[in-house]
Amino acid sequence: KRDITSGEEYAELHAEIVGLREELVDARLVKAGTLPLSEAMFQNIVNEWAESSGVNILSMRVLPLVEKGGLGEMRMAINTRAEIGGIQNFMERVEQGRRFIFFEEVEIKMISPHEKRYYYFNAQLTCWTL
Fold it and tell me: Which CATH number do you get for residue 101?
């Protein structure tokens, strides 16, 4: 009788742990059914953040996937043009987002000595997927 109860408890705990893992994966990783869908999801998230921050994306390139410890590391390079406030807002959205998306490289450059309102903002973003 004790072994059956322990087995049932184990099965319940296992199911709960698996459920929590799936919730965490869905909430934190950029994950869709296939790699191309995950890349599209990553692009959509970055586009939404840029649009709501007033950042104009001039170009976006998805870089090759890198495998690290059972996780896939998707990388994206963006070139943008925006006011410094929009750039700051975009960077805050990335840092405070619920998904594991972060900056690998960031470059902010003046467009020209005569243009003091807008800046070029180039970055490489990384996220994790399964």
Answer: 3.30.70.60
pTM for the structure as a whole: 0.80
76, 61 in Cβ contact below 8 A?
yes
What range defines the domain where residue 75 resides?
30-129
In 10 A of CB 56, how many CB atoms? 15
What's residue 126's pLDDT? 96
Cβ distance 122 to 79 under 8 Å? Answer: yes
Burial degree of 19 (CB within 10 A; 0-12, 13-18, 19+) = exposed
Would you list the DSSP string of 12-38?
A: HHHHHHHHHHHHHHHHHS---SSHHHH
Total number of domains constituting the chain: 1
Indicate whether 93 belongs to any domain: yes
> pLDDT per residue over 9-47, tens digit each?
878 887 777 666 676 666 678 888 899 999 999 999 999
Domain assignment present for 76:
yes
Within a domain: 108: yes
